[in-house]
Amino acid sequence: MGVRVRTVTVLKEFEPFGLTVEASDNGSNRKRNDGKYQYMLFDPQILRPRDDDSWIYSDDCEHELFIRGKHLLWSSGPQVFKRFCAPSTIIKVL
Prior knowledge:
Strands 1-2-3-4 form a 4-stranded antiparallel β-sheet, with helices on one face. The model has no long low-confidence stretch (mean pLDDT 78). It is extended, with a radius of gyration of 17 Å. The chain contains 1 helix and 4 strands. The chain is mostly beta strands.
C-alpha cells in the first residue's frame, strides 16, 4: 500500500475552555492576564463508577481541568461542572 497524502484544514487554534470562562466572568479574573495556566484533557470514563447508571456528567466529549493560580475549573465543552478557589496556589492536580 502506498503513502497517501491528505489535506487538513485548521479551523482555529485550540483554546482551553477555561480561558473563555475567565473572559466571561464579571472582571474578577481580568487581573490574572499573565498568560500562565495549565490544562488537562481527560476521558470522562475514568471517573465513572463501575455499574453506576446514575452518572450525571456528559460522556460525549473530553473533560477539561483548567488551572490558573489558585483557581481550578472542571468543564466539558461549554458546560462547567465545578469551580474551585484554593486558599493558595494550586501546585498539582491528580
